[in-house]
Design goal:
This protein has 277 residues and is α+β, with helices and mostly antiparallel strands. The chain folds into two domains: 65 residues, Helix Hairpins, CATH 1.10.287; 155 residues, Heat Shock Protein 90 (2-Layer Sandwich), CATH 3.30.565.10. It is 38% helix and 18% strand. Strands 1, 2, 3, 4, 5, 6 and 7 form a seven-stranded mixed beta sheet that branches. Strand 6 and strand 7 form a beta hairpin. The protein is globular, with a radius of gyration of 24 Å.
């Protein structure tokens, strides 16, 4: 037998009194996705941490390892750290964007130098999958008016997205186009592309494209961070279907006064047809 209890109608629950002059706070509304987001974050962090533990355990017996084995294990450490650093950076940026506390250091920035810095970060992931990054760039290095750190973070997110959704052995293409007043940077992959109807929502927080479901894990923050950081600098973002399939994500930023400088040799990121990673 189940007994249900309800307080009698005369029961009185006094409300806490407010200090004179104080105003009542609006009730906090729970985020219905909070538990799912937290669970996903914990899962995502657990994976690279487990890989780090396993790799360090093997490296502790270094006396029996060949130089080639040690090199492979160090590369595994780099990939795990890259994944962790990217996730922490995105979570931090997302929190700062919510509070409006996002400092910017706007100055003349080399587009190619930002690309080089981003490629260096994700290179272990690209090499592991036998992929290649090609850069199509103008004869002169294009100079952007923006925050170099934020632009590099944008490129890391776009390149990690391309790496995750493209098949092994494929080519990821980066193109830089200078126009009269702005600069367009485009990252094109060989993945499944963005499904029709998702182009307007793919940059939303925690959004994941249906076409790539199951191909890559993640919180769905990367592309949202891209949009936040670019718009914060006065630019715009978008995505199109690539002519040969896949997705082509692009962003534009204001061109710096002067706009270009003589191109020098750029190690690490090369022109189309030669492997960058």
């Amino acid at each position: 037998m189940t007994t249900e209890y309800a307080p009698p109608a005369s029961t009185f629950f006094p409300q806490p009194r407010l200090a004179r002059g104080a105003t009542a706070r609006a009730p906090r509304v729970a985020d219905p996705n909070a538990s799912t987001i937290m669970a996903t974050a914990c899962h995502e962090i657990r994976t690279p941490v487990a890989a780090l533990h396993a790799t360090v355990e093997v490296l502790s017996d270094h006396a029996t390892l060949s130089p080639a084995d040690i090199g492979e294990l160090v590369g595994r450490l780099q990939r795990s750290l890259t994944w962790l650093e990217s996730m922490v950076e995105n979570l931090t940026t997302s929190a700062m964007a919510e509070t409006g506390d996002m400092p910017l250091l706007l100055r003349a920035v080399s587009a190619v130098e930002c690309i080089e810095a981003a490629v260096m970060v994700i290179e272990p992931l690209v090499v592991r999958r036998g992929q290649r990054i090609d850069l199509i760039e103008p004869a002169d290095d294009v100079v952007i008016h923006g925050d170099s750190g934020k632009i590099t973070q944008v490129l890391i997110n776009l390149l990690m997205n391309a790496c995750s959704y493209s098949p092994d052995g494929s080519v990821i293409e980066i193109s830089v186009g200078a126009r009269e007043e702005d600069v367009e940077v485009r990252v094109t992959d060989s993945g499944p592309g963005v499904a029709s109807g998702e182009h307007l929502h793919i940059f939303n927080r925690y959004s994941r494209g249906r076409a790539g479901a199951g191909r890559a894990a993640g919180l769905g923050l990367g592309l949202h961070i891209v949009k936040e950081l670019i718009e914060l600098q006065g630019g715009s973002v978008g995505v199109e279907r690539a002519p040969e399939g896949g997705a082509s994500f692009w962003f534009t930023l204001q061109r710096a006064p002067g706009g270009s400088q003589a191109a020098a040799g750029h190690d690490g990121v090369t022109s189309k047809g030669r492997a960058a990673a």
